[in-house]
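Hi! If you just cloned this repository, the fastest way to understand the data is to look at a raw example. We've pasted two of them here, unedited. The first protein comes first, obviously.
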Amino acid sequence: MKNVDKPNYGNWIPGRMIMVFLIMFCIFCVLSVLIDTSIIRGILIAVSAIFGALLVYMTYAYWLFGKNDGGLQKQLCNTLLDRLDWDGRGKALDIGTGSGRAAIYLAEKYPAAYCVGIDCWGNPWTYSRDICYRNAKIEGVAERVSF
């Protein structure tokens, strides 16, 4: 049974992007088999190799950012906040907030801070403003963040 009180920070790599690379890789592989002209076939093979490399890289990144319940994403946010030269008073702006992870962690780390997270939510991302507010509420900082 899924815990409804657990924040959803998602994955920084959209799954749809991996599917696009997979489809493009398959299309160019099939075309390289069907085309007889050697120059065009060579170009198609090169393009399919590029999409194949991108597919492998993005799939690995997706796995890496998602494993251990998003541990790498959390580690990156904590590293960012550890290097932040700020007394924790006043307002902070998180540009490209995604699911609100950095803004929420900042509000947790600095109780005197107010953080605003902005983003352009929509395709291909699965994040939304509502998810950010839900995560902030679950983490207990909803009154000190806005999105």
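Ok, and the second one:
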Amino acid sequence: MSRPHKTTHSDNDTIVAIITPPGEGGIAALRLAGPQSLRFLSRFFRPSQSDNTEPAAFLLRHGCFVSGENEFLDEIMAVYMPHGKSYTGLEQVEIFCHGGRQVVRLILDQLVAAGARMAEPGEFTKLAFLNGRIDLARAEAVAELIAANTQSSYEASREHLTGVYSEHVTRIRDEIVGVMSEIEAAIDFPEDEIAPAGRTELSARLDSISSQISILADSYNAGRIIKEGFKIVIAGRPNAGKSSLFNLLLRHERALVNPAPGTTRDYLSEWVDIDGFAVNLIDTAGIRERGGKVERMGQERARSIMKHADLVVWIADISTKNWKTVLERDMTSLDESRMMLVGNKIDMVRGIAKRRDFIECKLIPVSCRTGAGLTVFEKELAARIRANVRDLTSGLVVTSARHRQKLSAAHRATRSACMKLGTEESLDLIAFDLGQAAHAIDEIIGRVYSEEILEQIFGKFCIGK
């Protein structure tokens, strides 16, 4: 379904919701959006200074909120925004009251009793999209910005919200449409058949477009890490110091540490901020050849978690004489491309020869007891995370699985069109491929959409967004 240039809320519908987090605070806020917003405000608001004139737009006014029975409920501030100049694009009112649970609920109840409808999750932002205030990609960025809890996730969602990403995607779409229009002109006017040189030129343009789409789609792995976090699993043999390292990275005693092997029977998971990135840090059970039934279950779970990790920090006890032989045996069953080796108990190691072994094994020596080597380890950890994440300053990082899916479809379609141009296949088939590519990108920015897509996107929002 094509999005009309502008829509209005149906049936004189005015919605309301609390737009601040639940709980007690200094201030709470409510938002009304719809053609009756100002009427509802006028019914319950008594300004401190009134000259009986129509409220001025965007003027924050002080007064009190009274009930339908004219009973004082709270001292408030209120602002009115006219149709076409608010966040939603509709007539809008925002009320700021004291942040107690009961007072904000009383004000909300009065507005609902007067005829306002409770807003659905994400409905304010959905209205902003439907009324042409923002495109669909920027609407999704609103939820991402609110959920951002690290510097990197904030930067990515901020760039999406400003429209840098949408503008880039739109330029790619325009390039596709440009090629398609030339193809369709040749279809409509057969006498203007595309010469071989013309096909070569169009093929080169399509190859460039396809490459741009591919680069953008491939950024999703970095975008997923930014949005969902980088998953690091701490693994190794029993009593190597996994839980101790886990606690050191968290800066508090989260895991139980005991010299007896097999203390950790199941995994522990915590979130930590490392160099501005959200990291899901997981401490697993020690892996060895023996152990009781429960311990073996923990080891199987540890192996399963390691398979889905972005990085496995394998920790070895380098205070034992045969640590290098044991490590080499362990490494035969591990994926070295996603592995970072750490040797614990450096404080118990003597001799230059062993220290040379650390370099040979590409192992970072640390002491979880004294903290020696921890700074070097954390710097390397941050570097490994950054190696998986693109530069965020361009704003061209895909953080949505839906966008990645549509970009992949557009890439396949442009590649298909490019190949058909080279083999001189029917221009109708080439135009069809390009139409499919443009349609896929249109679904990213919301030029076309379905109610199902909107439900999937805005249903994930909280009430008040």
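That's it. A detail worth noticing about the second one: Confidence is low (pLDDT under 50) at residues 1-9.
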